[in-house]
Each structure stands twice: as C-alpha cells, then as structure tokens.
Amino acid sequence: MLTTVLLVVIYIAFIGLGVPDSLIGSAWPAIHSDLRIPIESVSIITFLISGCTVLSSMFSAKILNKVGTAKVTAFSTAMTAAALLGYSFAPSFIFMIPLAVILGLGAGAIDSGLNNYVALHCRASHMNFLHCFYGVGVSLSPYLMSHALGNTSWRVGYRYAFYVQLGITVLLIASLPLWKKSSSAEDAEEEKGVNLPLSRMIKNKEIRLVWCIMLVTNAIEYACGVWGSTYLVEVKGFETRYGALALTIYYIGMSAGRFISGLLSDRISTWKRIFIGTLILAPAIVIMLLPLHGAVSVVGLFLTGLGNGSVYPNMIHLTPHNFGKEVSQSVMGSQIAFAYIGVMLAPPAVSLVSRLFGIKVYPVLLAVLYIAMVVALKCFTDRLKKQGKFNRNV
C-alpha cells in the first residue's frame, strides 16, 4: 500500500517537473511583445535553463547519494515554484535571467533522481506512465497560459503555474516519511550505487551513443515546445492564444504516446516501442515539411509528440539493463544532462536558422534532427548486439 501511495506521489512530482517546461514557449509571443524585446531572446532564457539543468544533472549522483531522492525532489520543486512566481512579477527581461538559473538547477536534480529510482524499482509501464505525467504538466501549462492570455495576461498564466507547483511542493514535503517506510535497506543501497567518473563514461562508446540519442530526441521535443507556437503564429497566421492552445495539443500527443507505451509494456518489448515511436515520427515530420493549412500543421505537431514522446522514457528505463544497476545513477545523470544539452541547443539553433533563412524553414531542422536520431539508434543497437547486451525482449 505504501509503495503504491509513494508511486502516486512520484507521478505527481513529475507533473511539477513538466509545468515550467512549456510555459516559456506558449507565453513568449505575448512576452516579447509586452516587454518589447526581440523574439529571438527566448533562446537566452532556454539556454540558461537547460545549461543549469545540465550542470545539476551531471553532478546529481553525488548529491542524491548524500541527501536522498526524497529531500532533493521536495527542495528542487520548491525552487522551481519560487522561480515561476518571480517570472510573474519580472518587470524586464534582465530579471528573467537569474530566475532561469533557479529553474534549471531545480529541474536537473528532480529528473535524474526520480528517473533512476523508477528505473531501478519499477516496471517499464511505470516509467512510461511517469513520463506521461510529465506530459500532463507540460500540457497543463499551455492550457493555463492560453486561458490567461484570453482573459488577462501572461503574468497571470505564470501565477497559475506557481499555484500548481506550490501545491506539489507541499505534497512532497508531507510525503517525506513515506520514502523511509517503503524502502528497505537493500533497496536504498541499490539506489545509492557507485559514482562513475565522467572521464570513464566519455571513453565508453555505448554511453556516448546514448548521449547522442538523448540529446537529439529532446532537441526535437523542445524545438517543438519552444518554437511550435511561434511558428504557427508567425507563419500560419494563428492568434497568440490559439498558438498556445495548439502547443497544448502537441503535449497531449506526447502524453498519449507515453500512456499508450505504458499500456503496451506487457505485450510489446521496450525496444520495439522505441522503434514504433521513431516510425510514427516519419509521417509527422513530412506533414510539418509540407506547405499545408495551419490546422494540418497542428496534426503534425500532435504526431511528433505522439511518436517522439515514447523514446525518452523507454531509453531511460533501459539504463540499468544496458549498463548495470550499480552505475545506473551516474549514467542516468549523464544521460539527462545530454538530454538537456539538446534542450539547450535546439532553440538557439532554430533561432539562428530562422534569422538566416526565415522561420519557414523550421520544419527542415526537425527533419535533420530526426535523421540524426535514427542513425544514432541504429549504431547503438548494433554495438549492443556485438557485445551480446541487446535483449529485444526487455
């Protein structure tokens, strides 16, 4: 019973992880107009958030081993709540910069700690459902922002998000005793694991390939999350609030992909679910590339979320299987760090391409990222097969 309650708490914590991630993308068309700043300035904010998340994730193993997943998650969620409240009062762009640092540092520790805990102690279905709840968080934010933009302002949208995050923080603090009661000494030791130095991980080709996969799949996710709404507004002629609403549909697709993947986990292996996700991405990218009506582009965004959504959680779940339980926390932290490097680089890349060629070529960048992900997946699975580590039934 305690284990079930704790799992629900972890799911809700992942809603809190997702809440801040989609706010900037859905609010930015209104923010840059209100504060009279260049539209490309969003890349500075996302770069800082992602860069700090990379640092937090990369060094998370030592912090989590010392303090524990429960306390780190509660404290980090409180940090993100404070940052969201700060954004709602920011009088100018310069005040958003330190808040971006706080958001990034908080997100990295949550992501690494909870992912490793679930990968070690739970079935593949739970990992997919966990990231489905992340999808609930990132779907909720554009909806709240769309409502705020239609009635008041983007600042109220940030306050709505703060209230959600504050409630999750209170729940996490109240649930701290559950972690001690539901974890045996053996489980705690398994979760603690061994710290694997970055210098050793860099020498491992399989780890480097996983880094590449995680980087690219998250680059696709965040390129859509940050620029999808702006693309629809600037190119397809959507109103800002409908652009934000379209982003909600994208994140619903991502959540649906993860939910369906979780339901199918007992029937279809993890690797097959990853391959199915990459196949769904192909027609999604084609739809985005074609000069079709704006509503059709929303379908492309939905399918992109649906296909790409299942890749990340399933790769995360395979970490202990691919590299061993004893080093999974270290590898997990590095994987998530590189995932956020993708998050960090994608918006500036779209910004640069848009400045040079216009935002109309934004879908071309998505196609390039997709090809890179398929190539990296093929190379990684080939390496595992040669070493006898590839288990298509996991």
Structure report:
The protein is mostly helical. It has one domain (2-174, 189-387): MFS general substrate transporter like domains (Growth Hormone, Chain: A, Up-down Bundle), CATH 1.20.1250.20. It contains 19 helices and no strands. It has helices at residues 2-18, 23-34, 42-58, 60-67, 69-89, 96-121, 124-151, 154-174, 176-182, 185-192, 198-202, 205-234, 240-263, 270-289, 294-308, 311-317, 319-323, 328-357, 362-387. The longest helix has 30 residues, at 205-234. The protein is globular.
Largest β-sheet summary: none
Computed over alpha carbons, the radius of gyration is 20 Å
User: From the helix content, strand content and strand pairing, which structural class follows?
Assistant: mainly alpha
CATH superfamily: MFS general substrate transporter like domains
The helix fraction, in percent, is over 70%
Overall, the morphology is globular
Distance between the termini: 27 Å
Low-confidence stretches: none
Using the 3D structure, state the CATH architecture. Answer: Up-down Bundle
CATH fold group: Growth Hormone, Chain: A
Number of distinct helices: 19
CATH class wording: Mainly Alpha
Strand share of the residues?
A: under 5%
Q: If you average the pLDDT, what whole number results?
A: 86
Order of helices and strands: HHHHHHHHHHHHHHHHHHH
